[in-house]
Design goal:
This protein has 16 helices and 16 strands. The chain has 430 residues and is an alpha/beta fold. The protein is globular and about 70 Å long.
């Protein structure tokens, strides 16, 4: 065990979602090391076992049994595990690890151990597991040595199930990619330009945004990235408008005249667009996403609905958000757009206030200190990565893994559709 020993670094195994929060943890941590292992990606050469960054190891199989075996082979190299729900947590549990669950989205709002969970946007049933599946995921959840989440949106739902939940409002921004000195993309601007990189949909508040733009009196271009997500459950990127849902199709076809659609942008190039435009339009949900944080680090003003009832807590203190508007009212947003177009003083003042706020919320060094504190505290309590498991639990898990072929068949068509038959067969070969 490395914790508490001089000149030794705490080693963390991270499972799942490696390209985002965990990747930045790996990149910026100084007092702990992070090894990332993620699930196979569509079209990725599994023999390479890496992402384009070269920092992420990939499982070479879709089979849960093979993934568990892989973790068991390497687990002794690490002190603690952190996993993303629910796929990463499932593997950590079956491998018998002491693991931290890290919630950053609706995976706790619609947990799989709740019967008929409702999605937050629209209220539709996202998944309905049977009695035994719900029981399994409840065990996965309860067995975590800690559960961590951010902001009121996700922490409050988490607290309903774990009174000992840990809150970390700080979320890292890659400041090497997003800063005011990033070279500008040549947009050949002809007028004041507002840029919206997030996906088009009601869940992002585009009904309010479109209404607001139609009410505006000022002259501007509104650049909207042309990418669409049909549903959170499917996670499928749709570039053919004819394949969009009716609601999203209506938003696409009935966009205001100021709106100009542009192709999908690689995330690593997004900063070049932020520095090239005048204002960034964020989402109207009340949540602060990565896009808004990244844009602010480029010293650009951001319009993003900030729910005054939601708290941001940093170092034990409630910090008031400077983001505007404070409601989802289209008239209020329209007035803000007109003001931000017409007044450089207002733009500069808003950008400065947002930067000071986000600098405290998302500077990598501050984020890593929060996590370092959590890892050290848990590392002192749990002296090994191995979790104490009962004989009964081991038997249940053994038989559970033996049923894997049933689930492979159950999701076969869905996986083939997502990956292609050749890639699917390669990833399920025993």
């Amino acid at each position: 065990m490395h914790v508490g020993l001089p000149n030794l670094t705490l080693k963390i195994l991270a499972i799942g979602d490696a390209t985002n929060n965990f990747y930045l943890m790996q990149k910026y941590a100084k007092n702990f090391e992070v090894h990332l292992i993620d699930f196979p990606k569509k079209g990725v050469d599994i023999k390479a076992h890496s992402s384009p960054s070269g920092e992420v190891e990939l499982f070479d199989s879709l089979l849960i049994s093979k993934q568990v075996d892989k973790i068991k082979q390497i687990k002794d190299e690490f002190d603690l595990c952190i996993a993303k729900p629910w796929a990463g947590a499932r593997i950590a549990y079956l491998a018998g690890l002491n693991y931290i669950l890290y919630f950053t989205g609706s995976d706790i709002i619609t947990p799989p151990f709740v019967k008929n969970p409702k999605h937050t946007h629209g209220g539709e049933v996202t998944e309905n597991f049977n009695f035994f599946e719900r029981g399994f995921y409840r065990k996965v959840f309860d067995s975590a040595i800690a559960c961590v989440s951010t902001s009121d949106s996700f922490f409050l739902p988490l607290q309903k199930y774990r009174k000992d939940a840990i809150r970390i409002d700080r979320i890292c921004v890659d400041t090497e990619l997003f800063n005011e000195n990033v070279s500008k993309y040549d947009l050949q601007k002809k007028k004041f330009t507002i840029f919206a990189p997030q996906r088009l949909g009601l869940e992002k508040g585009y009904d309010v945004i479109w209404d607001a733009i139609n009410l505006c009196k000022s002259d501007f271009d509104f650049l909207q990235v042309k990418w669409f997500i049909e549903s959170n459950r499917g996670g499928t990127t749709v570039t053919d408008p004819s394949k969009l849902s009716k609601i999203t199709m209506d938003l696409y076809e009935n966009s205001p005249s100021q709106v100009k659609f542009i192709p999908l942008i690689d995330h690593k190039d997004l900063g070049k667009y932020f520095t090239a435009v005048d204002v960034i339009m964020g989402q109207m949900t009340g949540d602060l996403a990565g896009i808004e944080r990244e844009a602010v680090f480029c010293k650009k003003p951001v319009l993003c609905y900030s729910d005054p009832n939601r708290k941001t807590i940093l170092d034990g203190k409630n910090i008031e958000s400077p983001f505007l508007p404070k409601s989802r009212n289209a008239r209020e947003l329209a007035d803000l757009i007109d003001k931000i177009v017409e007044s450089k003083e207002f733009r500069d003042d808003l950008a400065a206030k947002e930067y000071e706020y986000i600098k405290n919320l998302s500077t990598p060094e501050l984020v890593m200190k929060d996590w370092e504190s959590v890892f050290e505290r848990l590392g002192k309590k749990y002296k090994t990565i191995d979790r104490e498991t009962s004989f009964y639990e081991k038997i249940v898990n053994y038989f559970g893994l033996s049923l894997e072929r049933f689930y492979i068949k159950k999701f076969r068509e869905k996986n083939i559709q997502a990956r292609g038959e050749k890639e699917y067969e390669l990833l399920t070969r025993r």
